[in-house]
Amino acid sequence: MSADDQLIPSFALHVSDVDLTPDPIDPAQIISGAPEITSTVLWESADGARTHGIWQITPGVVSDVEAEELFVVLSGRATVEIENGPTLELSAGDVGVLRGGERTIWTIHETLRKVYSV
Question: Residues 6 or more apart from 71 whose CB is under 8 A from it?
């Protein structure tokens, strides 16, 4: 643990009460529909190497190149197809790990909200 990490106070919050801000999607990533992303960063290390936050996306289909990530789905439902890998069916209560550099297609069936750590 770095000195910066030791100075950050502990906290707890109710995730559904957190206000999220628009996080524009690169139009080249939208495959179908009109998905919208909102998010907020809860904490970021001083060097920017680690981030914890909340992320939400409305229904549609998007492509992405993933960061190394651990996440927990709080609400909604999605299918994530990983190029040359498994297809993940996600819903509330699921925990997942994505590997950095993986190319994915996210099909959002119901607005999905997750907490993440990258």
Answer: 55, 95, 96, 97, 98, 114, 115, 116, 117
pLDDT for 35-65, tens place per residue?
A: 999 999 999 998 989 999 999 999 999 999 9
Amino acid at 70: L
* Among candidate residues 17, 51, 24, the one with its CA nearest the CA of residue 38: 24
Query: What is the value of pTM for the model shown?
Result: 0.89
- As a whole number of Å, the end-to-end CA separation of the chain is 16
Give Cα separations from 48 to 4, 51, 52, 72, 105 (angstroms): 12, 7, 11, 21, 26
SS3 67: coil
